[in-house]
């Protein structure tokens, strides 16, 4: 079983809008050491877990080395190999060291940028059902558009790591209910 524990809880961090990167009132979720990737095919392990939990449109690569966000979709990043230092939340956000077995789940609008990475760094990205992913750079025009699209992005029915009973739907719905 690829998940270390059914009880593992993610770190939950909320980033505020900085005027260029909108971020989201829903928290970034970071699972540390959530997936056992000590095998010959760690990418397949993560893809299997994400797929079983209803997240698809997967890809394998790294994290872009420039600041960007996605204004129409939430994103899961599962680290299959290596390690990296990634800043989440934009230039005034927070830096995290992420490594094989970690998963970051970004609500739509969350800025992210790879600051450094090991040569073998590999991430599996995935998205819940819905609109496709578009890379958005932080500009005043993109920010204004994102403020309209981000609230329309639905809370996923499942957590890509822990499924229907995972913390993502509960944590993110609590925020959207408080806003409504």
Give a written overview of the molecule.
With 180 residues, this protein is an alpha+beta fold. It has one domain: Jelly Rolls (Sandwich), CATH 2.60.120.10. It has helices at residues 42-52, 140-149, 167-179, and strands at residues 11-15, 24-31, 56-61, 75-81, 83-88, 94-99, 103-106, 112-117, 122-127. The strands form two sheets. Strands 1-2-7-4-9-3 form a six-stranded antiparallel beta sheet, with helices on one face. The model has no long low-confidence stretch (mean pLDDT 94).
Task: Characterize this entry briefly.
This protein has 180 residues and is an alpha+beta fold. Helices cover 19% and strands 30% of the residues. The chain has a single domain, classed as Sandwich (Jelly Rolls).
**Helix/strand/pairing class, anyone?**
alpha+beta
CATH architecture: Sandwich
CATH superfamily, called what? Jelly Rolls
Number of helices: 3
Question: What number of domains?
Answer: 1
The CATH class name reads: Mainly Beta
The poorly predicted ranges are none
The largest sheet has its strands arranged as 1-2-7-4-9-3
Question: What order do the SSEs take from the amino end to the carboxyl end, as H and E?
Answer: EEHEEEEEEEHH
Assign the CATH topology.
Jelly Rolls
- Approximate shape: globular
Question: The biggest beta sheet, please?
Answer: 6 strands, antiparallel
Strand content: 25-35%
> N-to-C terminal Cα separation, in Å?
38 Å
């Amino acid at each position: 079983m690829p998940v270390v524990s059914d009880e593992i809880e993610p770190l939950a961090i909320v980033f505020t809008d900085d005027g260029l990167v909108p971020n989201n009132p829903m928290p970034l979720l970071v699972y540390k050491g959530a997936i056992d990737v000590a095998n010959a095919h760690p990418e397949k392990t993560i893809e299997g877990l994400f797929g079983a939990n209803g997240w698809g449109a997967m890809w394998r690569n790294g994290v872009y080395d420039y600041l960007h966000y996605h204004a129409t979709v939430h994103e899961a990043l599962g680290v299959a190999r290596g390690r990296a230092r990634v800043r989440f939340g934009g230039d005034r956000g927070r830096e995290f060291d992420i490594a094989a077995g970690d998963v970051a789940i970004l609500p739509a609008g969350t800025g992210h940028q790879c600051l450094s990475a090991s040569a073998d760094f590999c991430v599996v990205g995935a998205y819940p059902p819905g609109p496709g992913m578009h890379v958005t750079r932080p500009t005043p025009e993109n920010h204004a558009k994102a403020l309209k699209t981000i609230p329309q992005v639905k809370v996923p029915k499942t957590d890509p790591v822990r499924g229907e009973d995972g913390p993502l739907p509960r944590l993110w719905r609590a925020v959207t209910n408080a806003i409504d």
